[in-house]
């Protein structure tokens, strides 16, 4: 014991001060508490981040792959964000009330969500079928994807709220999948046989007779106010002057092959810079009833090809017409094409529902069903 004291004394060591010891112990204890607190906070942050940012599967599709192998595609919530953005943007453009009844017993928000999911199911099934059957995008189609991605990103940058999943990589994947799915869908549709002669026989050529017209127009109304109220009637002097200008133009138009050549339009508004006379074209169908009254339409239909009318009047305007073609088959052919497309789409929907869907196991997760609420997911 004495030797120990001697050694301590020789080394200049002194007995620790009790206050200093307590202070160091307290400091050490505080440091430990701080470290523990930091660990707890970091742990909480990690849990929150993991909860918010971890992949959230919303759609799982299993089905046949190439060479008979099973194939699987899982879409996470972020993978669907561009589709949600498109739907929300469209609904917002029309000022839709998301809580309003859609007429099907569900809200507009739920209706939009169901539509997006139905579209996603079809996209993935067709995309997987395309891969299975070796359908690919060619160089031109790949270029179209590039253009679509750029246009989409411009729209997103202007109108989105920056939601995760709207970066270019996610958008490109969505557009590429849809492009390939659409190509394979068309491949399936082209394989259907439709009786075009029977469809043509069902459509009345007389009902869809088209009168292709060019015209000049002078409105009886003035400029509409900025407040959105109805445009006022022109005063008598202004209207008389406008009509006189139209009558003068009608004389020149009798010798013109194309009405547009007599209009000086420097700003692209289809109006003559000096007189304000409007140039336009019109496809009048035999069964149309919303263009003037019956007598007005009958007078137009009586014109021969190449004829130029006198100044004709309706309640709202003065016109001069040129008959370009009084028996244009364009409307009839358009109706035939529409009917053909409609029948092929019906055939496709039957094939998709009765055949394709049965080849795949499709699961929509509870996260999509219970947690996703449309209305303000992606848009400002």
Question: Can you walk me through this structure?
Answer:
By secondary structure, the protein is α+β, with helices and mostly antiparallel strands. It has helices spanning 2-10, 18-53, 81-93, 108-133, 139-159, 168-190, 196-202, 236-253, 294-301, 330-356, 366-371, and strands spanning 57-64, 70-76, 210-219, 278-285, 312-313, 317-328, 361-364. Strands 4-3-6-5 form a 4-stranded antiparallel sheet. A 3-stranded antiparallel sheet has the order 2-1-7. α3 crosses α4 (108-133), α5 packs across α6 (168-190) and α6 (168-190) packs across α10. The longest helix is centred in the first third of the chain and has 36 residues, at 18-53. It is extended.
Q: Name the structural class.
A: alpha+beta
List the total number of helices: 11
Distance between the termini: 81 Å
Biggest sheet record? 4 strands, antiparallel
In total, the number of strands is 7
State which percent range the strand residues make up.
5-15%
**Rg, Å, rounded:** 36 Å
| Overall pLDDT | 89
Which descriptor suits the 3D outline?
Answer: extended
- Read across the widest sheet, the strand sequence of neighbours is 4-3-6-5
User: What does the oligomeric state look like here?
Assistant: single chain
- The parts where pLDDT drops under 50 for at least 5 residues are 1-13, 43-52
Estimated helix fraction: 40-55%
The SSE order reads HHEEHHHHHEHEHEEHEH
Helix/strand layout:
Layout: H1 2-10, H2 18-53, E1 57-64, E2 70-76, H3 81-93, H4 108-133, H5 139-159, H6 168-190, H7 196-202, E3 210-219, H8 236-253, E4 278-285, H9 294-301, E5 312-313, E6 317-328, H10 330-356, E7 361-364, H11 366-371
Antiparallel strand pairs: 1-2, 1-7, 3-4, 3-6, 5-6
């Amino acid at each position: 014991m004495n030797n120990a004291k001697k050694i301590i004394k020789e080394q200049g060591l002194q007995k620790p001060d009790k206050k200093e010891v307590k202070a160091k112990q307290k400091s050490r204890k505080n440091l430990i508490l701080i470290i523990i607190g930091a660990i707890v906070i970091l742990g909480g942050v990690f849990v929150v981040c993991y909860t918010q940012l971890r992949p959230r599967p919303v759609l799982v599709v299993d089905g046949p792959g190439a060479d008979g192998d099973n194939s699987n595609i899982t879409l996470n919530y972020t993978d669907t964000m561009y589709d949600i953005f498109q739907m929300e943007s469209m609904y917002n453009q029309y000022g839709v009330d998301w809580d309003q009844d859609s007429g099907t017993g569900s809200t507009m928000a739920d209706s939009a969500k169901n539509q997006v999911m139905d579209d996603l199911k079809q996209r993935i099934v067709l995309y997987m079928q395309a891969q299975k059957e070796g359908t690919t995008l060619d160089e031109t189609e790949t270029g179209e994807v590039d253009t679509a991605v750029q246009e989409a990103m411009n729209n997103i940058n202007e109108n989105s709220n920056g939601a995760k999943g709207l970066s270019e990589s996610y958008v490109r994947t969505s557009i590429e999948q849809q492009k390939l799915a659409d190509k394979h869908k068309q491949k399936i549709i082209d394989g259907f046989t439709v009786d075009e002669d029977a469809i043509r026989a069902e459509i009345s050529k007389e009902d869809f007779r088209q009168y292709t017209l060019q015209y000049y127009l002078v409105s009886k109304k003035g400029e509409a106010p900025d407040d959105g109220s109805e445009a006022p009637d022109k005063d008598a002097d202004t209207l008389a002057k406008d009509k006189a200008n139209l009558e003068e133009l009608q004389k020149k138009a009798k010798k013109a092959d194309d009405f547009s050549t007599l209009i000086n339009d420097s700003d692209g508004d289809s109006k003559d810079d000096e007189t304000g006379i409007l140039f336009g074209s019109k496809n009048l169908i035999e069964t149309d009833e919303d263009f003037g009254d019956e007598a007005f339409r009958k007078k137009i239909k009586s014109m021969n090809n190449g004829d130029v009318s006198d100044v004709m009047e309706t309640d709202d305007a003065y016109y001069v017409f040129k008959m370009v073609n009084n028996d244009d088959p364009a409307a009839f052919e358009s109706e035939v094409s529409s009917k053909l497309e409609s029948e092929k789409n019906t055939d496709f929907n039957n094939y998709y529902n009765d055949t394709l869907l049965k080849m795949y196991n499709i699961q929509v997760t509870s996260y999509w069903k219970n947690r996703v609420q449309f209305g303000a997911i992606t848009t400002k």
